Amino acid sequence: MLDKNRLPQHIAIIMDGNGRWAKAQGRERSWGHQAGVEAVDRITSYCSNLGIKYLTLYTFSTENWKRPAPEVAALMQLMFESLEEETFMKNNVRLRIIGDVDRIPDYVRESIQRCERNTSKNTGLTMVVALSYSSRWEITETMRDLAREVAAGNLKPEDITEETIAKNLRTNFMPDPELLIRTGGELRISNYLLWQCAYSELYFTDTFWPDFDEHALDLALEDYQSRERRFGKTSEQVQNNQ
Ligand code: IPE
Ligand code: IPE
Ligand code: MG
């Protein structure tokens, strides 16, 4: 049974398996991406009802730019079409984007940034869309920013701490995810939130993303709740709150 008092604050998801889901039904990959949007709506609204504060969705990776141009264009168009500001407002959901937005077509970037601005005061769930995102890109950008600060004399190398780095990552407005879910059966991280997932609980399921529903999320959350998070300590220390 799910304990509603012990839910993670932040869930990160690698939404994988759209293409294989479509192929299994003899359809085009784009059909799977379309169905993936419905799963996003379902899971966002469920997380919002559960009172989860942050949901970070891996929507398009830096490496995904290498896909065939028509698939990339269709994914960008889908991103544009699926952003319904009205729904964000109705559900009090705030949108944030992390990723290399300069690579995104102008019409998509402008509509996303408008939606980010217009939902910035919402106080419910924050839906974080990782778009044109990869963790190594993010860390590289952060290192450049810090190097510039050092070169300008504003920061001493010895003053760079783990906190300094975390504060300069694109995810600096939220806590690290307690739970990382990957759908679609692959057992890898694919360049996602490498710094932030240092101590996340990992959950992998064979379910393809378009089939991922409230029940599937409950199973992931129950599994998460069954784990003992030790952070390097012994089980005895954790049980005695030391
Ligand atoms: C995830 O599904 C969506 C994106 C990466 C954009 P895929 O498109 O990777 O689906 P599979 O893994 O080929 O089934
Ligand atoms: C990871 O899925 C990226 C997203 C879900 C957006 P991929 O399907 O691109 O991952 P790999 O390439 O199989 O690792
Ligand atoms: Mg995939």
Can you walk me through this structure?
- The structure is a single chain.
- The chain is of the alpha/beta class and 242 residues long.
- It has a single domain (10-134, 175-227), classed as 3-Layer(aba) Sandwich (Undecaprenyl pyrophosphate synthetase), CATH 3.40.1180.
- 42% of the residues lie in helices and 14% in strands.
- The protein has nine helices and six strands.
- Strands 3-4-2-1-5-6 form a six-stranded parallel sheet, sandwiched between helices.
- Helix 5 (106-118) links the parallel strand 3 (94-98) and strand 4 (126-133).
- Helix 2 packs parallel to helix 3 and helix 3 packs parallel to helix 5 (106-118).
- The mean pLDDT is 98.
- Bound molecules: 3-methylbut-3-enyl trihydrogen diphosphate (IPE) (2 copies) and magnesium ion.
Name some characteristics of this structure:
242 residues, Undecaprenyl pyrophosphate synthetase, six-stranded parallel β-sheet, 6 strands, 42% helix, 14% strand, globular, binds 3-methylbut-3-enyl trihydrogen diphosphate, binds magnesium ion
